[in-house]
Design brief:
131 residues, alpha/beta, 2,3-Dihydroxybiphenyl 1,2-Dioxygenase, domain 1, 2 domains, 3 helices, Glyas_Bleomycin-R_OHBP_Dase, Glyas_Fos-R_dOase_dom, VOC_core
């Protein structure tokens, strides 16, 4: 079998808050997926899509959505062009209302920081020379 496309589906409490957060970070809305149950954004040069469903809607298809206050479902990694880009991401995430769980720091030969969106979905922004 050959996979044509892959995307992520995640549950959120408040679609308007989610839309505001990801719009403030500069992500592109995936316009044809906007309604009372779903908002969708395009991430990166490869156009990775994340759908954000109202949790109650997602739970109709997923037996149990992760409780992000006590655990983690996945961490998405975002590549940065340099250390300054990582620092700028951290500042923009703070302004947009995200929670920093790992301040910008050196990691092996790279540089990274980690954050959660308002619903607790986790991301790290990473600069890795040569990547």
């Amino acid at each position: 079998m050959k996979t044509k496309k892959i995307w992520a589906n995640m549950g959120v409490e408040n679609l308007d808050r989610t839309t505001k957060f990801y719009t403030e970070l500069g992500f592109t809305p995936n316009g044809h997926n906007t309604n009372d149950e779903l908002r969708s954004f395009i991430f990166g040069d490869e156009n990775f899509i994340i759908h954000f469903f109202v949790k109650q809607q997602l739970e109709k298809f997923v037996p149990k959505v992760a409780d992000l206050s006590t655990g983690n479902e996945i961490i998405f990694s975002i590549s940065a062009k340099d250390k300054e880009d990582v620092d700028q991401w951290a500042e923009e995430v703070r302004k947009a209302g995200g929670k920093i769980f790992l301040e910008p720091t050196n990691y092996q030969q790279g540089y990274t920081f980690g954050f959660s969106d308002p619903d607790g979905h986790k991301f790290n922004v990473l600069y890795w020379p040569g990547m």
